[in-house]
Amino acid sequence: MSGAKLSRPGSTQSGRGSGSDIHVSLKENEFFKSADEVLLKSKGKTAGDGPIRLLEDILFLDISQQQLIDISQVSLCLRLKICIFHSNFVANLEPLSNAPSLKIIDASSNRIKHIPGELFWSGFTYLEVLYLHDNPIANLECLGMLTGAPKLRIVTLYDTPLSLNNNYRHVAVNSMWHLEGIDFYLISDEEIIQVSWPSVVNDNLFQLHIMPSKHVGELLVAISLFMT
Description:
With about 230 residues, the chain is α/β, with parallel strands linked by helices.
């Protein structure tokens, strides 16, 4: 008898009786992981080339595609500037609150339903780029929460239930006046202009801040720009 197939975030898993439910629960416990100190040190980068001694020395962290459900240990990375944890099963952004120097956050393709309040985001005085696409975010009020981030320039919310709301882009533009781009669109004073990717693919600004973070090479280059 084959094992239960795990669902992607947002999908449902059906079982046949309580025995099947227990089996799925056990398999999930084996599948999901927590971001421990060993993982963070192996996936992090500091200003130097030597081994990472303390989590608080990590400036760049890429823990994407690690089957993570818990990133609470990230709260110990006090000097973190770039944090990438897309394609996991994370639902809580609170552990990031101890890293006020963050400039780029990629939380896309997770299980995030709720966005922390405006006070939470007001602590990120350097945050410029926030990827939230492909999450089960549905509440239009989350756009008001993000107004707390005073320097947020780029945000992605496509492939979310929220993006199905015809007014969400209009609300975002008129709520976050400091935004320069939403999803694959630039924002002008008069209108939202769709970006033609071939025309900007060689632009370093867009490579670093708008293109999906699976292009880790570009984000690695970003370290030299953001460690000042």
